[in-house]
Amino acid sequence: MWQEEVAKQAIKHALKALKKRHLVEEGAHAPAYIALSRPIISQGSEWKGKAEKLEVELQQCYKAQSRLSEQLVVEAAESRTLKAFLQEKETAMAELEKELTQTRLDVSL
Q1: Phi-psi category of 43—alpha, beta or left, where left has phi over 0 and alpha has psi -120 to 50?
Q2: Which spans of this chain does the record mark as coiled coil (predicted)?
């Protein structure tokens, strides 16, 4: 019975020693942990600022793209109108050239 009591006391002493060692080790790592966490915290706010800046830039790009798309639609419509106008003029010129050629033939005879 006396040996069991000594064994229990030894186990309790060993557990206390392990807990104490664990706390000492945690304490030893605390400055390193704090030093490493500060840059991460500051980087977090830095990254948040960069993300917000990029979001604003992306919105500006979307707006510019929208304006350019609208401008492209307008210019494409104008281009089709001018192409049709040009074809009408080319057809009219071909008819006038044909009439001129016919008139020259009639005059020369």
Answers
A1: alpha
A2: 51-106
pLDDT single digits (tens) 56-109: 999 999 999 999 999 999 999 999 999 999 999 999 999 999 999 999 998 887
Q: DSSP per residue over 15-48, as a string?
A: HHHHHHHHHHHHHHHHHHHHHHHHHHHHHHHHHH
Q: Residue 2's Cα: distance from chain center in Å?
A: 74
Give the global pTM. Answer: 0.46
Four-residue CA torsion sign, 44, 50, 56, 62: negative
